[in-house]
Each structure stands twice: as structure tokens, then as C-alpha cells.
Amino acid sequence: MPKAKGKSRRQKYSYNVNRKRLYRSARRRAAPRIACSHIRHAWDPTKSVAQNLAEMGLADDPNKAIPIPKKTLLGMEVESDGRGQGKKIVRKPYVVNEMEYEASLPEKKSNTLSRDLIDYVRYMIQNHGENYKEMARDEKNYYQDTPKQIKRKINVYKNFYPEEYKDFVASLKQEKMDVQ
């Protein structure tokens, strides 16, 4: 099929468009993206970023919030009287309090193993016990894991699910007792 006319031609640059003005107006309209929900709810869109953060007791510039002490030639620190910076009034202290409380909560362990790996490890332990060489020769060892790799997978399972592993081993011992 032949090409459409004009498609291979170079595009001309339009000198009449003021791109700076377009870019500035787009930036002015965009609101700041705030990840923390506590800050988002306390945010006042009529105020600047620095004013909003100062009201919440947060710093917009870490270099100004905690200044580095100036050193003299002898290496001794110069003490400042603290009059250089004015005290800022924190009108929304609940934001910082909520953030501190949220940070103090313990983290939940979200690490889990895949169902396939759990089934694989349970099958190997059930059929071979602690014999890793026999496990390596098993027909269900699809990925041809070496005895050390299988042992490592079993140890990972033990570390992730210690109670479940103990119950599983206890049930295997109970089955052996019932068979005899």
C-alpha cells in the first residue's frame, strides 16, 4: 500500500505559542500530592505549603529546622542565644501526635510463602522425614533442587510458620504411632 501524503514531512515549529505561560498556569492549578492522610485532612488550600506545615508543627526545610552549628577556626562550637529565630505557633498539633502514634505501632509481618512451596515442603517432610538426599531424588522435585537447597526451603518454612511446622511434625509422629 502507498504511504499517505504529508506523513513523512517534517513538522513545523509554531513560534507564536507562548509555552512558558501554558506551563506556569498548569503548575499553579496543580495541588500538592500529599501521601499522609493526617496532613491531607488538615491541609488548607488557601495557604502556602510553608504556612500549612508550620501550622502543623512540621518543617518544610530540614536545613532551617535543625541548623548545623557554626564552628570557629579552633574547632569549638559557637553558641547562639536562640534569638535569631522567632517562635512559630503550632495550631494543629494533633497532626504530629497522630503521626507519632501511627509510627509507634508495631509492624505487621506481611511476608508469606507461596502455597506451592508450602505444599512442596510438607510433601517432602511427610514422605522422607529429614533425609535430604532422598528428597533430591524424589519425582516431585521438579526443579531438581539439591539437598542443600531443599534443606534451605524447609528452614525458611520453619522460620515463617513455626507453630504450623510443630503441629505438622506432631501429627506425623501421631500417624506413625497409630500405624504401629
Automatic annotation (TrEMBL):
Gene (name only): Nop16
Organism: Uria aalge
Family: Belongs to the NOP16 family.
PANTHER family named among the record's database cross-references: HSPC111 PROTEIN-RELATED, NUCLEOLAR PROTEIN 16
Subcellular localization(s) per the UniProt record: Nucleus, Nucleolus
Pfam families attached to this UniProt entry: Nop16
Keywords: Nucleus
GO cellular component: nucleolus
Name of the protein this chain belongs to: Nucleolar protein 16
One GO biological process term: ribosomal large subunit biogenesis
Lineage: Eukaryota, Metazoa, Chordata, Craniata, Vertebrata
Coiled-coil annotated residue ranges, if any: none
Region ranges (Disordered): 1-21
Predominant cellular place of this UniProt entry's protein: nucleus
